[in-house]
Design goal:
By secondary structure, the chain is an alpha/beta fold. It is built from 9 helices and 10 strands. The longest helix has 16 residues. The structure holds adenosine-5'-triphosphate.
Length: 238
C-alpha cells in the first residue's frame, strides 16, 4: 500500500514545464530520497504534495485518498508533516517552550511534560532545553525543526534538505533520527544532496531531471547509473 502516490502530476509556471507528468510512489514504511540537479523541480514537487502549489494536471493520493484539491492544513491534519530548510522555530523562546507549543494542541499536564522530555532526549537537545532557540547551533536548530514536525505524529514526514549546512557528525546523527522514526512506522520523503546521507537512510531513490522521473532504484543502482552521472555533469539535456 502506498502512503503517497502521484499520477501524471503536472505543473507549469508560465511556459516552463516544471513538473512533467510525474508518476511517483512512496510505499508505506519507506524512506525515499528525491535527488536531482539544481532546478530539476524537487522543491516544486514538494510544494505540490503539501498543497502550496495547485497542480496544472494529474492527481495526488495520500493513504488511498485523493488529496489533489485538499488545503495544506487538511493535509497536515491527515498526517503529512514537513521540515523546511527555512527555520520555523520561535528563536526568542526556549527550546522546551518551542516543543510545548508544537505539542500542546493535543497533550496537556503531565503527559505533555513527559512527551517534551521524550522528544528532547530523541533530538539530543536535553542539555539545551532552557537555552533560547535562537542561540542553538545550526545543527541543533535543524533538530528542533524536526521535533516541531514530528510533534504532530505524522504518518508521512517530508524533509527538505535536512542536513544542509551540517557537520558530518550532525549529518550522521540526523540520519540516525530518521532511521529511528522510520522504525516507529513513519514514512519519509526527503530531498537531499548529500549522497552519504542518502546512502545512510534511503531504501529507494528517485532522480528528477527537468521535472521528469529520470531514474529510480536503490542508492547502489543510482550511483552506478552512468546516465545519472551525466546529468549531474550537465551532459544530458531536455
Ligand atoms: N513560483 C515559481 N514561479 C516560476 N518559476 C518557478 C517557481 N518556482 C520554481 N520555478 C522554476 O522551476 C524550476 C524548478 O525549480 P525547483 O525549485 O522546483 O527546483 P529544485 O530541483 O528544487 O532546485 P534546487 O535544487 O536548486 O533547490 C526552476 O527553473 C525554477 O526557476
Amino acid at each position: 500500500m502506498a502512503i503517497l502516490r502521484t499520477e501524471k502530476l503536472d505543473k507549469w509556471f508560465g511556459g516552463l514545464h516544471v513538473t512533467d507528468e510525474v508518476d511517483f510512489t512512496v510505499e508505506t514504511g519507506e524512506v525515499h530520497c528525491l535527488i536531482g540537479p539544481n532546478g530539476a523541480g524537487k522543491s516544486t514537487f514538494f510544494k505540490l504534495v503539501l498543497g502550496e502549489h495547485a497542480p496544472s494536471g494529474g492527481a495526488i493520493l495520500y493513504d488511498g485518498e485523493n488529496i489533489t484539491r485538499a488545503k495544506p492544513f487538511e493535509r497536515i491534519r491527515r498526517g503529512i508533516s514537513v521540515k523546511f530548510q527555512v527555520p520555523g522555530i520561535f528563536q526568542a523562546l526556549k527550546v522546551r517552550q518551542n516543543l510545548q507549543i508544537a505539542l500542546q494542541h493535543h497533550l496537556q499536564g503531565a503527559t505533555l511534560n513527559e512527551e517534551i522530555d521524550r522528544l528532547l532526549e530523541f533530538l539530543k537537545l536535553k542539555d539545551a532545553q532552557d537555552q533560547l532557540a535562537g542561540s542553538l547551533s545550526h545543527g541543533q536548530k535543524q533538530w528542533l525543526e524536526i521535533g516541531m514536525a514530528i510533534a504532530l505524529k505524522p504518518k508521512l514526514l517530508l524533509l527538505d534538505e535536512p542536513t544542509a549546512g551540517m557537520t558530518p557528525d550532525e549529518t550522521f546523527a540526523t540520519g540516525e533520527m530518521v532511521q529511528a522514526l522510520n522504525a516507529q512506522g513513519v514514512s519519509v520523503l526527503a530531498v537531499e544532496h548529500d549522497m552519504a546521507f542518502v546512502r545512510q537512510i534511503a531504501q529507494k531513490v528517485t532522480v528528477l531531471h527537468f521535472g521528469k522521473v529520470f531514474a529510480q532504484g536503490t542508492i547502489d543502482e543510482i550511483v552506478a547509473d552512468e546516465r545519472v552521472a551525466a546529468i549531474y555533469l550537465g551532459e544530458v539535456h531536455a
